[in-house]
Specification:
The structure is a single chain. Helix 26 packs across helix 48 and helix 33 packs antiparallel against helix 40. With 1954 residues, the protein is an alpha/beta fold. Strand 35 and strand 36 form a beta hairpin. The strands form 13 sheets. Strands 33, 34, 37, 38, 39, 40, 41, 42, 43, 44, 45 and 46 form a twelve-stranded mixed β-sheet that branches. The protein is built from 58 helices and 55 strands.
């Protein structure tokens, strides 16, 4: 066995994405040896890589299937490496530096000689024997070829083989020869490569001389896989020099130009070049990845194909966005053909001399082809120079004979050369592309990981194609999408069995043997195809060619010339020659089919060019003359001239009556009661969408990515981008004006808002770019303004900004704006793209996150109107539903008569573009209908019933309204030139008939304003009550009620809205060849509207679908907050049963032309009878309604049998209308059934439609949807659904700028929501090269744009109002973010101040210690948050006034305040200045911090306490460590004598729980940049989350035993820690020489809700001397720094125990000014002297009122408490966290129960349900809510309070508590003469004695409550205090908190005083 056979391997495996690990190299041993030698010469390394290391690469994972692939039969030849460019990772290549002084110019050799072909084409070049001139490609000169001479022995033969390894070449410029390595040669000719030089990559084609003797580009060199060389029949066996191609130079140029796309990517092609390879062998190798061909040509045709590598199957169709596997191959001869997503070329274009026939999309289609798999079943790829057959001559006069240009579909194999009359044929690559698309394995089957090899053979593909063509109707056009779907379905169904068998084999661990490929023997193919064709109506002809396709094409042209293919629409040519694969092609000969397919090859732009060309060159002259003769008189212009003369006084009485009618209309007073103008209002559904948008914006801001900081923005600005339509522009400007958004956002003053509105809307034209530049500059200059860039109608221009920069500057402008680098990177710019058709924005390369999409919600759910609207949206799905059984006359129709006439005229004028013909026919119909209306009944046969209905309804609508309101008819003509032609003709006809005052004709073009005549302009002004003499309608909505025909032109609709008076939408002229979902849906979306639901006395039944329009491909869409439902109205009840769902028979007009018209139309040719056949197939039934099936009837037993009562209102109207039309047309009713309409009648019998009702047309229009007319093809596509109920329309490609990643994509499901559809398109579509999102794929950035949103809603649903409302609520939210709700409550229990000698001076800024110490302490609590707490008894206590008995628990009063620049912020604030302070910078790593333990002994707890500090590195300077990074010793404290204006002396402690996000810990702005020490005090279990949100804050973590403690524990530990730290600092400072008493003793304890601080100042206003001076109270925001520094500078401040400020209130009381300082309670924010209060502790057990308790004990210790009344603190209302974190619930899990305060206690040892709450919290809540029962004598008995010793507990607002301290020398209230109603002893210590208690007097029956830690202590306390002497106890009066024993309940005992 030779070495070459040993090392055979499967090159295709690598092309599908396998790595090199464990694989055998595909190079021969000799080649590897040669490569190693060459690499050693190039390499800088001393030791070259060993040869065998290149042959074998050790595997980490060996795959069995790959090993099997290596053990192939020995009779297969090894194939050489592919020379095509690979998309594998590039090999680093270092070029040798050129010799010094040599030439390095591109295109010149190093000797300075020009090598470019354009320069050397006429030079005489000497070529040595055995050498060939070759064209080399330089990457730096892509448009040039470099001429070089190469030894032909190193070039491949015609089959891509037999090329020697290495290189030998000469430079033809300088003559240097003997280059033995291509590396050296490439350096010499200055290729300047950055990758490894390969001759296969850079030697592209042979150079040959043409007839003029000039050197020109010849055939491509047939390196393996490119197949570019022609197979020459040369007599020489030793030379492969190419000769001149067999056809003429002219024809060669034509072919090459038509197929130029193939050459651009020809190097990426992979094919099967072995001529003898059988079809099935090719099939098996394509699937298994085996590229080698058999040596023997007579091998068995039906052999089992090899198993494929499972990994290769998985990766075969994987898109490139997933990325390539790592390639670890050696640096030289890797598998150059390996490429997981290498392109596979396809030939595009048509063989036409007219350049317009070539598809402009071919450039982008090349990108689409790059996703195809390289393996192909199509045999050799056809090339302009790849055939040895004689060319096929196209006969002359083919078009004249056939009356059409046949279309030749390339199929399998090489299409032979065509020459001769090439103008009369069209060559299409669509079928060949379809075959190739269906050969790539889909990603959807990767999950099976099977080695399934079942594919469709060539014969099966051909047979399925024949079957498809045979089932088409004679007048039906073929759609490639349908055929592709059939091929895919056939593959899927056949592969399903194979997959199941494989899975069973795997599960049973048995060897799996693949079944044979699905094949049909070539001998069987022909007769099977003929059998299939025989079943059709003889429209498919099968030609069997035994030798070549050329024979079949020649025979076809012969038959066409002889007229023997009349009635044949398709000719399928099959070539089954021996020893070669089956070849085929399809010739389309049907007139309608060929014309459709030829035009479908044109892009929309080329359609318009072709139309304009025919109009400009006068080709339409014959067509115009033909239509002018279509009238009884023989000349329609003469008939119109007679009408004009008659109108001038010489005509009939009928014309006179028309004139009289016009006069009365003009003089009629406008007395219509129907209101005209709708007020601009926001509907609930629009508000819901706006809120949805806002929530998405908030979600972006709330994310941790810091992409949007809403807290930093102060206002909102915006710019709206709209398509280049003047009407759409004015329409958006109008809505901006009406919304008042400019004034609301503060952008413009109210007086100038209307004039400035145009500055905020921009048309996407080059002339208006200055608006965007101004917007961009504003965005860059105003970082605190949030700019919203709204891209409305975003699907319109998706062109990449660099695609068409010169020819059409407005194309790609949206990309240059939306994807502008400055806009994308600006943190204050948010982009909102708004569209009704988002599909093209939902690709794999989209910038929009699926989480940033907002879909329009459903308005109904289960028949319930969710938004209480009177209007129901009527969209495309509703129009489609009207075509099903149950509707009398569908709202979606096509005109069969019109279609029949089109067919006849197209046969007469085969060279004319169909759009021109269709337009002329429609002009004819409208002209004839107008003439019928004017009294010329003889013209009725020249129009259709549909057109007559439109015109009669239009002309007679004004008669039913006293104000002459009428209907609008929208006539859609995409071509502007044809629209102008129709406008001129119809205006001319209208004028000659004297109807110019009956209705207006308006031409609507994108770039022009609306222009109407003065007569109708005056009418509009009167109707709309406009007095401005210069007013003209700016939008189509301004044409409300105007009877008119609006001719809407332009390639695409631009989102214009139309008035509700639009009754008919005539879309018969829309482009039927552009079958894209977006294109079709936007045309059909023109008619979408709202219909009124609540019309008195009428019932408008509209389909109750969850989401309108075809956003969901079947029926409904249940978005995130809506539920899809079935429709159960009478009209749609038939849809309940799929089997019973059938189309209504009233889909189009039954009118057909009379025989007279037929003869006129066709002259000698008989008129097509398709119209009459359609009439017979679709009779228009006006007498009966299909009744629901019995199952539905049973579900609705209450339905009445009266069908007219079941019909919708608009249905009834249509029925009446058509009954009248039936009466009109009864003169010729004998020609057809009585149930069908006739088109012939006498107008004398015609009652006008306007006489049917006296109702205003607007009232009718508001309650009934409009009628839409479509082309038949579009109608069938729109209304067709598959077996799963999915609309066919949804299966089309969504947009021309995207393509499917594979043909094997699954279909959309029927009930897919908009979100699911988005995910579907994101998975299965990719952007083409001209798509604006394509650049994202190129840049390989996978991230979505963080500040881009998509709003998707049906057409005309109200999206503009929604996003304008979004701007409004966004602005309000930003203002709301700059505002906070602060508590605004007036202090309680205030008393009138008595005159006193101790009155303070009002001007004092600081308290005087001596005078202040003489003030009495105010025991009364004034803080309004304690309004429901027990009052503290004092002699001057007054009763609370205005108690809110029940409301106090509901909500405290708050006021919204705007944040000042000195506010404290939560974690949502991220301004630039705060990044370092907060410790979160998105550009930096999180701050490092360390955990330090701090231990001290606490006498109160009786043990050592260990706290933990989390100290960021940046804050370590505030602490003392034993050594850097060592043991924490103390926290630095300043000295009293220190004076630093930028420093705060007092450390700030903020205890917090449950408020890691909402706590106001950001004091950066509050401190005004001053240096300060801030410590967060948190619980251990919350440490991680607080650290995450506040990484740069110092945190004090409480021990775990305090996890369930309240705020008292935090205060207690803060104070204990601070005193211990004070002692440590005094010792340290003493060592440094300072006095211990000089260490600063104060700390600040602040709530986490303190948001702002205010200062109160009084100014005395100057007045006359006689009048007293008035004081003006001024309150201003000040910084916390100012407040603290002011208090810290108080004289003798160490003598004060507590300093604080008052709580802010908007009602400033005079005592604050009269008394700048008070001795009273302090709350929420205070300075605590830890030195003076050493012996007064916070109660660590307390949850509530611990500050009141502490204040009372501090005062009783004789210490000073000072409140600075001129300062106040604002507290923000924070709804979460704090004391709300403590929930009282049962310990029994999953037992829902409501727990009342009475259940907080229970009898000891009882079986009470225990609660999961701290015992202290249960006790405090119990006493607060039930003390009325515990102390009955104390309720509202303020003169007999409850005596509480050493503590204050809240006993409820109706019980007064008198606090008394038991400590020696304490200050207590004078209780002499006071009798108490109760005694409360809470955890008494040893200071409480019986003697102290005996000083007090109690009422008889007073209540005693003794609270202790356990029952033992309880009994000991009773005995120790001798309580039984005066108090009576009972056993049943002992209680405990409802805690289990392990939770340590509290016990208490109650008694009665005796």
């Amino acid at each position: 066995m030779c070495v070459k056979e040993i090392f055979q391997s499967n090159n295709e495996d690598y092309k599908m994405g396998n790595s090199y690990a464990g694989q055998l190299k595909t190079t021969r041993f000799e080649e590897v040896l040669h490569n190693s030698i060459e690499a050693s010469l190039r390499s800088n390394n001393l030791v070259p890589r060993p040869v065998f290391s290149q042959l074998y690469l050790e595997a980490e994972h060996q795959l069995v299937s790959n090993l099997e692939a290596c053990k192939r039969p020995g009779n297969e030849e090894e194939e050489e490496d592919d020379g095509s460019e690979s998309s594998s990772p590039l090999i680093p290549y270092q070029m040798k530096p050129p010799p010094e002084g040599c030439c390095t110019t591109d295109g010149f050799c190093q000797a300075g000689k020009d090598l470019r072909l354009v320069s050397m084409s006429n030079e005489q070049i000497e070529v040595p024997s055995g050498f060939l001139l070759i064209g080399a490609k330089s990457p730096n000169l892509p448009e040039h070829l470099l001429v070089c001479a190469v030894d032909k022995r190193f070039l491949p033969d015609d089959n891509g083989r037999n090329a020697l390894l290495g290189f030998s070449g000469n430079c033809v410029g300088c003559g240097e020869n003997g280059f033995r390595y291509f590396t050296e040669f490439s350096n010499h000719i200055n290729l300047k490569l950055i990758t490894q030089p390969k001759k296969q990559k850079h030697l592209k084609c042979y150079l040959i001389k043409n007839a003029q003797g000039s050197l020109t580009k010849g055939p491509l060199i047939c390196w393996k896989g490119t197949e570019g060389r022609t197979q020459q029949s040369s007599s020489s066996s030793t030379s492969s020099i190419p000769s001149q191609p067999p056809e003429s130079p002219a024809s060669s140029t034509t072919v090459a130009s038509a197929e130029s796309i193939a050459g651009t990517i020809q190097n990426a092609l992979i094919g099967f070049q072995q001529a003898g390879a059988t079809a099935d062998q090719a099939l098996s190798r394509a699937i298994t990845g085996v590229s080698a061909t058999h040596n023997t040509r007579d091998s068995s045709r039906h052999q089992n194909p090899l198993k494929a590598n499972s990994l290769s199957c998985q990766n075969m169709s994987r898109p490139s966005v997933i990325g390539n596997l790592a390639n670890s191959g050696p640096p030289k001869k890797r598998h150059r053909g390996w490429s997981p997503d290498a392109s596979s070329a396809i030939e595009m274009g048509s063989i036409q001399s007219n350049p317009l026939a070539q598809n402009s999309g071919s450039k982008t289609d090349a990108v689409e082809l790059a996703y195809m798999t390289q393996s192909s079943l199509l045999g050799p790829i056809p090339s302009p120079l790849t055939t040895s057959e004689e060319p096929v001559v196209v006969p002359d006069n083919l078009l004249k004979i056939c009356r059409t240009r046949p279309v030749i579909f390339k199929g399998h194999g090489n299409l032979p050369y065509l020459c001769g009359n090439l103008n009369d044929i069209v060559v299409s690559p669509l079928l060949q592309s379809c075959y190739r698309n269906t050969q790539s394995f889909p990603r959807v089957y990767e999950q099976h990981s099977t080695s399934v090899t079942t594919v469709l053979s060539i014969e099966m593909q051909i047979l399925l194609t024949v079957y498809y063509l045979a089932q088409l109707a004679p007048d039906q056009v073929p759609l490639i999408e349908d055929l592709e779907h059939i091929l895919v379905r056939a593959w899927q169904e056949s592969n399903l069995t194979e997959t199941k068998q494989y899975q069973q084999a795997v599960s049973q661990s048995v060897p799996y043997v693949s079944s044979p490929t699905l094949t049909v023997a070539p001998k069987q193919l022909t007769w099977l195809a003929k059998l299939a064709a025989s079943s059709c109506k003889n429209i498919v002809r099968i030609l069997d060619s035994s030798n070549s396709l050329a024979e079949g094409l020649t025979e076809t042209f012969k038959l066409l010339s002889e007229g023997k293919l009349q009635g044949k629409n398709f000719v399928v040519i099959i070539c089954t020659a021996k020893n070669q694969s089956t070849e085929s092609c399809v010739v389309v000969t049907g007139k309608r089919q060929a014309g459709f397919l030829a035009e479908r090859m044109l892009s929309p732009k080329e359609h318009l060019k072709e139309i304009n060309y025919e109009l400009v060159t006068g080709k339409v002259g014959a067509l115009g003359a033909f239509f002018s003769s279509l009238c009884p008189e023989g000349d329609i212009d003469m008939l119109l001239e007679k009408c004009s003369l008659a109108r001038n006084g010489q005509g009939s009485s009928f014309i006179a009556s028309l004139k009289k009618f016009d006069d009365t209309v003009i003089q009629r007073p406008t007395i219509c009661s129907v209101s005209n103008k709708e007020t601009c209002q926001i509907h609930p559904v629009q508000l819901a969408v706006a809120r949805k948008l806002l929530s998405h914006v908030c979600a972006i801001a709330d994310s941790s990515t810091q992409n949007l900081d809403l807290g930093s923005f102060e206002k909102v600005d915006f710019l709206i981008l709209v398509p280049p339509s003047e009407v759409a522009y004015q329409q958006t400007v109008l809505r901006v004006r009406q919304s008042g958004i400019l004034v609301e956002l503060g952008l413009e003053a109210e007086s100038t808002a209307n004039q400035c509105a145009e500055q905020y809307v921009m048309k996407l034209t080059a002339e208006t770019q200055s608006k965007f530049e101004a917007f961009q500059q504003k965005a860059l200059k105003n970082p605190y303004t949030l700019f919203i860039l709204i891209h409305d109608h975003a699907h319109w221009d998706l062109t990449s900004g660099g695609a068409f920069p010169q020819s059409e500057p407005f194309l790609g402008l949206a990309d240059r704006i939306v994807n502008c680098k400055e806009m994308k990177e600006a943190l204050n710019v948010l982009t909102l793209q708004v569209t009704s058709f988002p599909f093209a924005l939902q690709t794999q390369q989209t910038y929009i996150s699926p989480y940033n999409e907002v879909h329009w919600p459903s308005s109904c759910n289960n028949g319930v109107n969710l938004y209480q609207e009177n209007n129901k949206y009527f969209g495309l799905s509703d129009f489609i539903d009207s075509t099903y059984s149950g509707h009398k006359l569908p709202l979606l129709r096509y005109d069969g008569s019109f279609e029949a006439m089109v067919t006849a005229v197209e046969e007469r004028f085969p060279k004319m573009h169909s759009a021109v013909i269709w337009t002329y026919i429609l002009i004819q119909h409208y002209s004839a209908a107008m003439m019928v209306t004017a009294g010329h009944s003889q013209m009725k046969n020249y129009s259709s019933v549909e057109t007559l209905e439109i015109i009669q309804s239009l002309t007679n609508s004004t008669g039913s309204c006293p104000s002459s309101h009428g209907y609008m008819v929208l006539l859609r003509i995409p071509s502007i030139s044809l629209a102008a032609l129709a406008y001129e003709r119809l205006c001319q006809v209208r004028y000659r008939l004297g109807l110019q005052h009956r209705f207006e004709i308006i031409l609507g073009t994108p770039n022009t304003k609306i222009n109407i005549s003065q007569h109708f302009l005056t009418q509009l002004k009167v109707w709309q009550k406009i007095e401005d003499p210069n007013w003209t309608p700016q939008t189509y909505l301004d044409l409300e009620d105007l009877p008119c025909i609006l001719i809407l032109s332009g390639t695409d609709p631009y989102g214009e809205s139309f008035p509700r008076s639009a009754k008919y939408y005539d879309l018969r002229l829309i482009n039927s060849t552009c079958l894209l979902r977006t294109a079709l849906e936007q045309e059909l979306g023109l008619a979408a509207c709202y219909v009124v639901l609540d019309v008195p006395g009428q019932t408008v039944i509209v389909n109750d679908l969850s989401e309108s329009d075809l956003e969901k491909p079947g029926s409904t869409d249940d978005d995130e907050d809506s539920v899809a439902i079935e429709v159960t109205t009478v009209a749609d009840s038939g849809k309940k049963s799929k089997n019973k769902r059938q189309r209504s028979y009233s889909n189009h007009s039954a009118s057909s032309r009379s025989s007279k018209t037929s003869s006129i139309l066709c002259d000698s040719d008989p008129f097509s009878t398709s119209g009459a056949e359609d009439s017979a197939r679709h009779p228009l039934n006006v007498e009966s309604i299909n009744i629901e099936d019995s199952s539905v009837a049973r579900e609705k037993p209450k339905l009445r049998a009266d069908n007219t009562q079941q019909k919708p209102y608009y249905e009834t109207q249509y029925s009446e209308k058509h009954r009248n039309l039936d009466q009109i047309n009864n003169s010729k009713s004998s020609r057809r059934s009585s149930k069908t309409f006739s088109s012939g009648s006498s107008s004398a019998q015609t009652p006008t439609l306007g006489q049917m009702s006296s109702q205003c047309p607007r009232t009718k229009a508001a309650t009934q949807p409009p009628t839409v007319f479509l082309p038949k093809l579009i109608y069938e596509i729109v209304t067709k659904v598959d077996s799963a109920g999915v609309a066919k329309l949804s299966s089309f490609l969504p947009h021309h700028s995207v393509h499917w990643i594979t043909s094997f994509h699954p279909s959309l499901a029927k009930m897919m929501t908009s979100t699911e559809q988005s995910l579907y398109y994101r998975q299965w579509t990719v952007a083409k090269q001209n798509h604006m999102d394509f650049n994202k794929a190129q840049s390989r950035t996978g991230a979505f744009h963080p500040r881009r949103l998509l709003l998707n809603g049906p057409p005309q649903v109200g999206k503009t109002g929604a996003y304008l409302q979004f701007l409004s609520i966004l602005s309000r939210m930003l203002i709301r973010l700059m505002e906070v709700d602060v508590y605004d409550e007036e202090e309680i229990n205030l008393k009138a101040k008595e005159d006193s000698s101790l009155q303070q001076k009002e001007s004092l800024l600081w308290p005087d210690l001596e005078s202040f110490s003489k003030l009495s302490f105010d025991y009364t609590v004034h803080d309004p948050k304690y309004e429901d707490a027990s009052p503290v008894y004092s002699r001057d206590l007054t009763k609370n006034k205005g108690h809110k008995e029940d409301d106090i628990y509901l909500r405290r009063h708050t006021t919204r305040m705007r944040l000042s620049k000195y506010a404290a912020y939560n974690t949502y604030h991220h301004c630039e200045q705060c990044h370092e302070y907060m410790g979160f910078n998105p550009r930096c790593q999180p701050y490092d911090s360390t955990l330090h333990a701090f231990t001290f002994s606490c006498s109160m707890l009786g043990e050592e306490v260990q706290l933990h500090f989390i100290i960021p590195k940046s804050k370590e300077y505030n602490f003392i460590f034993s050594q850097p990074g060592g043991q924490l010793e103390s926290m630095r404290l300043p000295l009293v004598t220190d004076k630093n204006p930028d420093c705060i002396k007092s450390p700030i402690f903020t205890p917090s729980t449950g408020r890691h996000e909402h706590g106001l810990f950001n004091l950066y702005h509050a401190m005004d940049g001053a240096s300060h020490l801030h410590v967060l005090v948190i619980k251990e279990y919350e440490m991680a989350v607080y650290k995450k949100y506040w990484p740069n804050h110092i945190m004090l973590v409480l021990p775990s035993i305090f996890n369930n403690s309240g705020v008292g524990a935090a205060h207690f530990l803060i104070k204990e820690l601070s005193y211990h730290n004070l002692e440590l600092e005094r010792n340290r400072q003493e060592e440094l020489g300072s006095k211990p008493q000089d260490v600063w003793p104060f700390i600040v304890i602040a709530d986490d809700s303190c948001v702002m601080w205010n200062s109160l100042n009084a100014e005395t206003s100057k007045s006359s001397t006689s009048a007293p001076a008035e004081q003006n109270v001024l309150e201003r925001n000040v910084s916390l720094k100012h407040v603290l520094q002011h208090i810290e500078t108080t004289a003798q401040i160490p003598h004060y125990a507590l300093c604080g400020v008052r709580k802010w209130s908007s009602k400033i009381s005079s005592p604050y000014l009269a008394e700048p300082f008070s001795r009273c309670h302090l709350h929420d924010f205070l300075l605590l002297n830890v030195d003076l209060t050493q012996n007064v502790q916070y109660n660590q057990n307390r949850f509530t009122c611990d500050d009141v308790d502490f204040n009372l004990r501090v005062h009783s210790a004789g210490l000073l408490i000072c409140r600075f009344n001129r300062f106040s603190v604002m507290k923000k209302q924070i709804a979460i966290g704090g004391h709300r974190t403590f929930l009282i619930k049962s310990k029994v899990p999953d037992v829902p129960m409501s727990i009342s305060p009475v259940q907080y206690i229970c009898a000891p040892d009882s079986k009470h349900t225990f609660l999961a709450a701290p015992a202290q919290l249960l006790l405090e809540k119990y006493l607060q809510h039930t003390s009325n029962h515990l102390f009955p004598l104390s309720v509202k008995n303020y003169s007999h309070p409850v005596l509480s010793v050493d503590c204050y507990l809240n006993l409820g607002q109706e019980i007064t508590v008198c606090f008394v301290s038991s400590r020696p020398h304490s200050l207590n209230i004078n209780t002499s003469g006071l009798t108490f109603s109760g005694l409360l002893l809470y955890l008494c210590d040893s200071f409480v004695t019986s003697s102290i208690l005996k000083r007090f007097h109690f009422l008889k029956g007073a209540t005693l409550c003794v609270i202790c830690q356990d029952r033992s202590s309880l009994r000991q306390t009773v005995v120790r205090l001798e309580l039984e002497d005066e108090w009576q106890f009972r056993l049943r009066d002992e209680f405990q908190t409802a805690n289990s024993q392990e939770d340590k309940p509290l016990f208490f005992l109650t008694g009665r005083h005796v």
